[in-house]
TrEMBL record:
Annotated protein name in UniProt: D-3-phosphoglycerate dehydrogenase
EC number in record: 1.1.1.95
Keywords: Amino-acid biosynthesis, NAD, Oxidoreductase, Serine biosynthesis
Enzyme class: oxidoreductase
Family statement drawn from the similarity comment of this UniProt entry: Belongs to the D-isomer specific 2-hydroxyacid dehydrogenase family.
Membrane-traversing stretches: none
Function: Catalyzes the reversible oxidation of 3-phospho-D-glycerate to 3-phosphonooxypyruvate, the first step of the phosphorylated L-serine biosynthesis pathway. Also catalyzes the reversible oxidation of 2-hydroxyglutarate to 2-oxoglutarate.
All residue ranges annotated as the ACT domain in the record: 456-528
Top-level lineage group: Bacteria
GO molecular function: NAD binding; phosphoglycerate dehydrogenase activity
Catalytic activity: (R)-2-hydroxyglutarate + NAD(+) = 2-oxoglutarate + NADH + H(+); (2R)-3-phosphoglycerate + NAD(+) = 3-phosphooxypyruvate + NADH + H(+)
InterPro entries: ACT-like_dom_sf, ACT_dom, ASB_dom_sf, D-isomer_2_OHA_DH_cat_dom, D-isomer_DH_CS, D-isomer_DH_CS1, D-isomer_DH_NAD-bd, NAD(P)-bd_dom_sf
Pathway per the UniProt entry: Amino-acid biosynthesis; L-serine biosynthesis; L-serine from 3-phospho-D-glycerate: step 1/3
Length: 528
């Protein structure tokens, strides 16, 4: 089998060796495509690898009928329409750690350039202007650096700034007093940080919530003569507000690596002598590029060949050791979902899944997604997978509840799925028997022991002498061989069930004849 991989932004050749070494990878590198050319090119590719340049829009995703994985060789995924990818069941992975160091070093370099006006002085010198008066800077020592966003890069910047003998104060919604104390930095609300700082550096992702986080009002509460650094994302700082704040001397200078529009088309900010800038070079080191390309290539190979990834952005990551525990149950969960779709009459409005026994102590999200995949695939088709199963369930207004219990009624593990429709509530429970594989052990309130595979008939009837024989005879006449049969009843002469495994799909006329037999209430065929 050959997988087709399109690399549409420049990636380190040394870093993509996991792709080059893997068998069956057809790698196409086309890094100069226009958005239109890319849209016309994408169909047929299984994987797309990008950096920040390629805009992976909904339009592009819609044209990518075969795409399974988008790999972002870097951190920020704001150039990828995650919602569209998730809806289509395309997994998005990134390389969150590989460029942290380079981005932090670049931030410090930018702050020092800004403080000592190095780019401006160099520019003057280049123009043969020996000017020592215009480029008097300020020291970093004893100044306060405000860090907005203390994640991987923000934290590395904070550590380095302390090395410059700066005081550091940070704001991050996840920053605790203990962590701040451990790092030897101060913390506060965003307002407190903005008010206290001589230099402010932003390190948040670009989200709806962080768009124009630093706007006109934010500049107003800052110290006069504050200096700003942005090596995170254009758009976190409102460029128009920054322009005005620099013009009015509120802001003494700004160092920018990233811009609202990239590549830059409006150079107005750069006309201000207080601005220093680089064209999004934070991650542009040999080391970072190799590292992010290796990480993302490994995930792409791993996903295409084994279905597992380490750094998914649109699917919660599960630690390897937990994955090893739950993976054996994926198939059972999916089959239970499929079984109940066929069993329950009407469309599911609520699905309750209960994990008992061993499973109560592990992360079960992936199991629920597999169960939903089985449940939804019947009606929504092959494109349902564990990436989009939860999204599709939400979209169809299906309420999904998870429950856990250490008590497993004699089994070491048990997955019980209850499906509610407008018409009825149906239930099935399954387990993995040591060495014997998956079994459905309960349907509604009846105990059974059925391998969840092949062609099944679930029959509800009245517990009367001769019913079982009549079913067997009729199926025999219809040339349908019964492989296994289980019976159960609520009480003698009451409601009863038959659960048959048959060797082939029974046609609808056979099912109609079965339904016409006296004492038969209902017949459901389930193909797993
Ligand atoms: N210039 C460049 O070439 C590079 C830029 N980046 C960008 O740097 C940024 C940070 O990357 P990482 O540190 O790896 O990400 P991260 O995910 O480790 O850290 C982001 C932090 O921002 C915090 N945050 C979220 N919303 C916030 C808010 N409203 N206010 C304050 N904090 C908030 C989060 O809690 C998190 O701790 C991203 O935007 C990334 O795209 C990353 C690498 C290179
Ligand atoms: O990793 C990130 O978020 C970056 O901004 C790096 O972008 P790039 O891969 O250099 O286009």
């Amino acid at each position: 089998m050959t997988f087709h991989i399109l690399i549409s932004d420049p990636l380190s050749e040394d870093g993509i060796y996991p792709l080059r070494q893997a068998e069956g990878m057809n790698i196409v590198m086309e890094t100069n495509l226009t958005p239109e050319q890319l849209e016309n090119r994408i169909d047929g590719f299984d994987a797309l690898l990008v950096r920040s340049q390629t805009q992976v829009t909904r339009g592009l995703i819609e044209r990518a009928s075969n795409l399974k994985i988008i790999g972002r060789a870097g951190v920020g995924v704001d150039n990828i329409d995650l919602e569209a990818a998730t809806e289509k069941g395309i997994i998005v992975v990134n390389a969150p750690d590989g460029n942290t160091n380079s981005a932090a070093e670049h931030t410090i370099a930018m702050m020092m350039s800004l403080a000592r006006k190095i780019p401006q002085a160099f520019h003057a010198l280049r123009n043969q202007n020996w000017d020592r008066k215009s480029y008097v800077g300020v020291e970093l020592k004893n100044k306060t650096l405000g860090v907005v966003g203390l994640g991987r890069i923000g934290a590395e910047v904070a550590v380095r700034a302390k090395g410059q003998r700066m005081n550091v104060i940070a704001y991050d919604p996840f920053l605790t007093a203990e962590k701040a104390e451990k790092m030897g930095i101060g913390y506060g609300t965003i307002e407190e940080v903005l008010k206290a700082a001589d230099f402010i550096t932003v390190h948040t992702p670009l989200l709806k919530e962080t768009h124009h986080l630093i706007d006109k009002q934010a500049f107003e509460i800052m110290k006069d003569g504050v200096q700003i650094i942005n090596c995170a994302r254009g758009g976190i700082i409102d460029e128009n507000a920054l322009y005005e704040a620099v013009k009015s001397k509120k802001v003494a200078g700004a160092a920018l690596d990233v811009f609202e529009q990239e590549p830059m088309i409006d150079f107005r900010l750069l006309e201000l002598p207080e601005i220093v800038a680089t064209p999004h070079l934070g991650a542009s080191t040999v080391e970072a590029q190799e590292s992010v390309a290796v990480d993302v290539s490994m995930d792409v190979v791993s996903f295409l060949t084994t279905g597992t990834v380490r750094n998914s952005v649109n699917l919660p990551s599960v630690p390897k050791e937990i994955m090893a525990k739950i993976e054996p149950y994926f198939d059972l969960a999916e089959r239970l979902g499929a079984f109940l779709t066929d069993l329950a009459e009407g469309t599911a409005t609520e699905v309750n899944v209960k994990y008992s026994g061993d499973l109560a102590n592990v992360e079960v999200g992936p199991l629920t997604r597999n169960m939903l995949k089985g449940l939804l695939k019947r009606h929504l088709g092959k494109h349902v997978n564990d990436v989009n199963a939860m999204y599709l369930a939400n979209q169809k207004d299906i309420v999904v509840n998870e429950q856990k219990s250490t008590e497993a009624k004699g089994f070491t593990n048990l997955i019980t799925v209850e499906v509610k429709t407008a018409k009825e509530t149906r239930k099935a429970a399954g387990t993995l028997l040591n060495g014997q594989g998956a079994r459905i052990v309960k349907v509604d309130d009846y105990l059974v022991d059925v391998v969840p595979a092949g062609h099944l008939l679930f029959i509800r009837h009245n517990d009367r002498p001769g019913v079982i024989g009549r079913v067997g005879t009729l199926l025999g006449q219809e040339d349908v061989n019964i492989a296994t049969m289980q019976v159960g009843r609520s009480n003698v002469g009451g409601d009863a069930i038959m659960m048959l495994t048959i060797d082939k799909h029974a046609d609808s006329s056979s099912l109609e004849q079965l339904k016409e037999l006296s004492e038969i209430q209902n017949v459901t065929q389930i193909d797993l």
